[in-house]
Amino acid sequence: MTSTWAGLAGLAVSVCFILALKGLSGPKTARNGNLIGAAGAVLAVIVTFASDSHLEHLPLLYSALAVGSLIGWFAARQVKMTAMPQLVALFNGVGGATAALIALIEYLSGGAGETKLILAATVFTALVGCVSFTGSVLTFLKLQELITTRPIVLPAGRFITSAVGVITLISAVDMVVTPTSARLYLLCVLSLVLGVLVVLPVGGADVPIVISLLNAFTGLSVAASGYVLDSVLLIVAGTLVGASGTLLTRMMAKAMGRPLLKTMFGAFTAVAVGTAATDGVERSVRSSSPDDVAIMLAYAQKVIIVPGYGLAVAQAQHALRELVDLLTERGIGVAYAIHPVAGRMPGHMNVLLAEANVPYDQLKEMDEVNPEFRSADVAIVVGANDVVNPAARTDKTAPIFGMPILNVDEANQVVFLKRSMRPGFAGISNELLYDPRTSLLFGDAKDSLTKVVGALKAL
Amino acid sequence: MTSTWAGLAGLAVSVCFILALKGLSGPKTARNGNLIGAAGAVLAVIVTFASDSHLEHLPLLYSALAVGSLIGWFAARQVKMTAMPQLVALFNGVGGATAALIALIEYLSGGAGETKLILAATVFTALVGCVSFTGSVLTFLKLQELITTRPIVLPAGRFITSAVGVITLISAVDMVVTPTSARLYLLCVLSLVLGVLVVLPVGGADVPIVISLLNAFTGLSVAASGYVLDSVLLIVAGTLVGASGTLLTRMMAKAMGRPLLKTMFGAFTAVAVGTAATDGVERSVRSSSPDDVAIMLAYAQKVIIVPGYGLAVAQAQHALRELVDLLTERGIGVAYAIHPVAGRMPGHMNVLLAEANVPYDQLKEMDEVNPEFRSADVAIVVGANDVVNPAARTDKTAPIFGMPILNVDEANQVVFLKRSMRPGFAGISNELLYDPRTSLLFGDAKDSLTKVVGALKAL
Amino acid sequence: MDGIALLTIFVLSVFIGFEVISKVSSILHTPLMSGANAIHGVVVVGAIVVAGHAQDNVQLVLGLVAIVLGAINMVGGFVVTDRMLKMFTAPKKPAADKSREARP
Amino acid sequence: MDGIALLTIFVLSVFIGFEVISKVSSILHTPLMSGANAIHGVVVVGAIVVAGHAQDNVQLVLGLVAIVLGAINMVGGFVVTDRMLKMFTAPKKPAADKSREARP
Ligand SMILES: NC(=O)c1ccc[n+]([C@@H]2O[C@H](COP(=O)([O-])OP(=O)(O)OC[C@H]3O[C@@H](n4cnc5c(N)ncnc54)[C@H](OP(=O)(O)O)[C@@H]3O)[C@@H](O)[C@H]2O)c1
Ligand SMILES: NC(=O)c1ccc[n+]([C@@H]2O[C@H](COP(=O)([O-])OP(=O)(O)OC[C@H]3O[C@@H](n4cnc5c(N)ncnc54)[C@H](OP(=O)(O)O)[C@@H]3O)[C@@H](O)[C@H]2O)c1
Questions:
Q1: Integer Cα distance of B375 and B355 in angstroms
Q2: Does B18 touch chain D (CB under 8 A)?
Q3: What is the mean pLDDT of residues A156-163?
Q4: Which terminus has fewer CB within 10 Å in chain B: N or C?
Q5: Conformation bin of residue B283: beta by default, left when phi > 0, alpha when psi is -120 to 50
Q6: For C1-104, where are the E strands, in sequence order?
Q7: Residues 6+ apart with CB under 8 A from B262
Q8: Tens of pLDDT, residues D81-99
């Protein structure tokens, strides 16, 4: 295959990727978009093998490809729905590592003689790829709760991070000016450390935003590696991801009401707010039993369910669906109220509930459902907290102030299913828990729901 | 200035053009978008002179540039608002001619030795540029009514056009295979003829769509000339216009309910319909005097005004505004109902009325105003016809069938201001003219309005 | 490779051309057409280059004509577009829009 | 010129990257992120090239590791995105949408 044909095929792949992104941004076209992207990627691999007759070690290359593909495939198939964000983070990290390794190998195989521009691109690829690698792995560990999800603030952390950042930059410039492999290795190590330092102080809630940002980073790193390897395809693909990833990060941050810049250093404020949250524990709340809740539901006409992160943690979507089916059978009107940032990733609730085969028309978005709370007899809040916290409307100091919330406080009666009086993601207490019309059913959401279902059946 | 800097500047210009198009597609950003584009174009010219130290005949070049700029400037400043579409057509045509001339000169100065790819691009530039030139000039003549706006169908026109088209294509291929300057001249002549033949049978109504299409053509021609001249800027700029122009043409055709392909050969159907239109002349209509209309208006509470193409022809926007001001003074509620395709170009009515300083909030779009006709005492139709023709709702054979119209027929009384019983653009008669609640005030719209104003003042 | 790069530039420009105007309202069709028309007027820089390198008088005359025509396209195009757009000054509901922008 | 062409490609890609996703609804943020993540997995082709041209064993081993990692990114990314999107199957108001599509 001549290089012209390879180039044309590369262009076709680029077009596939553009169409993939376009498709992915519309609900109806998303799945096909992803498939077009996958087809493009397969084509890219085939063309790479077919167009370069000088490739050696072919059996080894094929084996490595097969091993990687199988690992990726199995990981993607086996992961639980709730663990998807961290898996994406991990995939992103290894992508960054790949780009960094390419830069390293390319340099080792004679890159010292390249132009300064190529050298700069090599250094950029290695630096950003390494940061993205360790940063992503760390977000994985956090989300997987292999380390604490709380922000980890080292003593003088800000200072250390800045220092390492500056040293890394200096060593990068140094490498471009007087390239040696030792310098490149050093740069990689520094960048790996930097990735860890940057992500350590990020609080649990900001983690998805950071994943998205690191995703954009990897894209840019891939684009730079394309410049090093003289591959238009890699430049286009990497840049597409870099640009759309940056925009996506901004949109995600906006949807969650987090200023993007503060995100990276949000740890400092988060701690202070966290302490204030425990104040309310002394005040009295009304806790109730599964039987109480079952009776309350049995006499309701209209019930609205507000799922939140706790539903995902407890994997209670199936139990919830069972409850809703029971209520519907009894002729009670039920709807799910989906807040745009309920859970820990956008669309989290939709994914979860879709997994439990909840029909799409029962899911109502915030704007649609908010006027209905007024006429609802019972609102059941299953593992949600921040998205129903009236402080967003009233308390200017609250970190969620200004975020639109679900108007659960307008319902006739409110039931919270949670395990304790601990606050949600934003770390602030929720006045609604102390409201006289609110009752709390303590316990794991799945257990509680199962008990309520049992009690309801026994009625 | 080194060529790297020139390249970077060219890239900056490309970015300006992208931002210009982006800006132009939003009402608030449109004007700035256009200015950004203009800034980019100026930069491009400056960089061209600055970066190429081998340019000869500089005084002549500057003079030519100055002459062209002045002509363009004056034409653009002096033209009447109603004549803008044809001016744009003319500008587009000379742009196509420029591209064709570039291709010609580039070939004459040694292009015979170029690669086949370059030759193909040269031929494409010349062909498309020439078609765009004569085609655009012809649309200009039509819209300016220097020749008839009716479709001109030559005997066996379809056959001749196809034949010339095929011959042109053959001669283009021939030119690529065995290039000589005689062949290139022949190709240019053929293309010029082809441009005329293609546009001749286009009916008045489809002319704006054809202008938009030829605009896209010129863009592609410029892009091809960029390939010939090895200019990334021209490739990007031309392609941007080619792509967005194509999409725009499709959107315009859709907004007017014209299938794009039929547009080019719409002449054949248009003739047949035109004859049917005169049938109704025998039927009786109620014609009234300016005094009648003035009295009718004086006792109305709510008046809706429907401007159309005739308003533009009569330049009656200022007289209309005077009438409306009078009515408003008398405490009568007045609104303008703007149909999306009233007039001969999209936004035609908005532009006209804006010229007469009609406040923006009196202009109501179709969806907004349609429910209000029911409660309107009088609807005054000023030089509109098709956009209020109920045949669009009822008559499946009408060429405008399916187009949403303004519900003027729901108003209590309707007044048409027109000169005769002649149909509008679509060439079909309008039942509403014969409705018992309709009265007609015959005459040029501006005269009629002035008389009504006079009569109203005298009341 | 160079050919591929140029082709890639072409294809990417097509996508951008489509994307940027994909949501234009019909009221802006005419100014948009006119603005796009002005943009391809930049072809005048090509005319300058070929005229400045003309090898005989025929080429020079043709080149000068091309410059004149290109300049008409470019300058006239931008000016007429600006004139049109001046007419669209006030946004339809300035109050509503302002309040939205005023939020922090 | 070549450098300019590549830079142009870069800039145009940035615009496309911004434009194509500029109107995505927040529900699709996660699948979109995941899909974009899969797309940069195509970096595996770069890994194949450098590994296939490795000049010593260090380079070869590093290259093979890079292939494995890149393949994980690419294959895993597309598969996990597809799994997510499978959950979003039914459009919200299938009836309304269908009727609109059914029109000629
Ligand atoms: N959607 C996104 O894209 C995204 C991304 C990042 C951050 N965020 C943020 O996450 C928050 C989402 O709000 P949210 O209301 O869904 O969640 P939340 O405010 O974090 O509250 C979750 C609640 O679930 C309870 N819970 C945890 N595990 C449980 C279990 N096994 N059984 C029952 N309850 C359990 C917790 O209380 P106990 O511990 O007492 O049980 C907690 O109150 C917002 O602040 C949002 O900004 C969202
Ligand atoms: N807006 C666009 O982008 C666009 C582009 C191309 C085509 N079109 C088509 O153009 C049509 C627009 O509809 P329309 O209702 O605005 O116009 P129309 O249907 O063409 O009717 C115009 C009316 O104005 C009258 N008229 C002409 N000169 C006049 C004068 N000096 N004083 C008073 N009346 C005068 C004519 O009747 P008399 O001759 O009896 O006076 C005619 O009935 C639609 O069919 C549309 O599809 C629109």
A1: 29
A2: yes
A3: 85
A4: C
A5: beta
A6: none
A7: B269
A8: 998 888 765 444 333 333 4
Instruction: Report the SS3 class of residue A212.
Output: helix
Question: Where are the strands (E) in B279-353, listed by range?
Answer: 302-307, 333-338
Dmax of chain D from CA atoms? 64
Selection from B16, B237, B54, B128 nearest residue C44 by Cα:
B237
* Those residues with Cβ within 8 angstroms of residue A340's Cβ, 6 or more apart along the chain or in another chain: A255, A346, A365, A366, D26, D27
Element (H, E) at A190: helix A181-199
Cα distances from B197 to residues A221, B134, B153, B213, B265, in angstroms, run 54, 9, 10, 15, 11
CA distances from A50 to B292, D39, D56, D62 (A): 84, 21, 23, 22
For D95, the 3-state DSSP assignment is helix
Q: Is A435 a catalytic residue?
A: no
**Predicted interface score ipTM higher than 0.85:** no
Question: What SS3 state is found at A70?
Answer: helix
Task: Report which bound ligand comes closest to the CA of B312.
Answer: 2
Span B265-312, pLDDT tens digits:
543 343 433 334 444 446 788 889 999 999 999 999 999 999 998 998
The two three-digit tokens of residue A168, written as one number:
């890394």
Is B230 in CB contact (< 8 Å) with chain D? yes
CA gap C4, B359 in Å, rounded: 53
Q: Identify the residue whose C-alpha is closest to ligand 1 atom 2.
A: A345
What share of residues in chain A are helix, strand, coil (percent, to 5)?
A: 70, 5, 25
Q: CB of B4 within 8 Å of any CB in chain D?
A: yes
What is the distance between the alpha carbons of residues B245 and B440, in angstroms, rounded to a whole number? 41
Distances in whole angstroms, Cα of residue A49 to Cα of each of A59, B199, D44, D59:
12, 51, 12, 19
3-state secondary structure of B414: strand
Min Cα–Cα distance to chain A from D102, Å: 16
C-alpha span between C25 and C91 (Å, rounded): 13
Catalytic residue among B386, B409, B435, B447: B386
Residue nearest to atom 5 of ligand 1 (CA): A344
Contact (CB, 8 A) for C57 and B373: no
pLDDT value, residue B266: 45
Radius of gyration, CA atoms only, chain C = 20
Cβ atoms of B224 and B123 within 8 Å: the answer is: no
